[in-house]
Amino acid sequence: MTPYPPRRGQSAARERFWALLASIAPRHDVTLLTQIDAAERELPADLPPRLADVAYVPRSGEHVPDPCRRLPLEVRCGAVSPALRQVVEQRLSRERFDVVQWEFTEMGAAMPPPTIPTIVTAHQLGFVAALQEWRAHGGVASELPRALRRHLRSLHFELSALSRAHLAITLTPEDAARLRAIVPSLPVAVVPCGVDAEHFASHGGPSAAPADLLFVGNFGHAPNRDAVLFVARDVLPALRARGVKLRVVGRHAASQLHALAGAANVELVGEVEDVRPHLRAARVVVAPVRFGTGMRGKLLEALAMGKAVVSTPLGAEGLDARDGAHLLLATTAPQWVAAIARLLDDPALGERLGAEGRELVLRRFTWQQVARAHEDAYARVLRDAVTPRCVPFRMPRPLPAALAAFPGPVRRRIAGAAGLSRITVDGLRWYAGRSWP
Fold it and tell me: pTM score > 0.85 for this model?
């Protein structure tokens, strides 16, 4: 089950779906059940070959009624179609499957109690990102209550979804450790993101106009927007004397980064059909990610292209890359300025890092290796599956009719207070270990 269809070149998640299915389907009978947006209307023509069956559910796109604000924003905004759970239950009741796999914890809103071995892939942990974002933006005391509320909402929803699976998959060891810190008994396997190392080869092919710095990402994703603004506002001014410019490539760049439109040292390219010409043209690829978990597929692509890379330690999670050996790591703005200047002044260092980075990719992160790790996870859950606790998920209920007599602002305050009380109690239960055997 995927929240949207597999597509090549669209996003790291869609690329992952496509590559894993293309690698696994020749050896197994795989049924894909996915959702499509109303604008898509039908499945893409370039689905992975040799799938046993493909079905889809139209995504309604409607906001889920949540008067007490107990759901994560992605779920409340219609990430999961209400019809999906019914279709899943119908398929499971009339067909035989060995394993059920859900991609993204947001899909937990549609998960029935598991009747066969079930896997959930946690691409990122929203409950971790909420507090990371607060710290990245200065740790302002007045913003802490909002960050804590986001943290608690995501904590209960995500851990409840994982509790209804026999095995959780994370993309990085760091995310696995974050889960085990709260739920030590949680069965977790790490299966990283991968990259098509032949497609992203360093040699041959067209090149775009030269660029000093390049950042690639989907700018509908908040950590990517923050990363670009950090470089533009905190790093580039210190490099002004060098005339250093940043090129920004990816979906929603123009609509989400309009504050940078027209900036002399920032070029907003937007979505491109093929990112490789821009990677070839870049002297340094930057990944200044300050919050958010999971693994960055675009960073793997840059390493596969043999590019010199500067990243935050957070942005490089899951790579097992060493500072000064495969890339350079930086956290503060002065560290970023120093790392970029070092690479611009020493092309030989960039070439050495690029060569070692590509070697790391070939050794650890080809899709064939990732697919084998996924099959190991299937074998593990079939061999060792332990009945999960199944912390139940219930869609929010409407407000009691008795509140109808109150004015709207009063109703909203009462609902908000009730929701905050509930997610606080739920969060404390998780931290106290009472929601897990």
Answer: yes
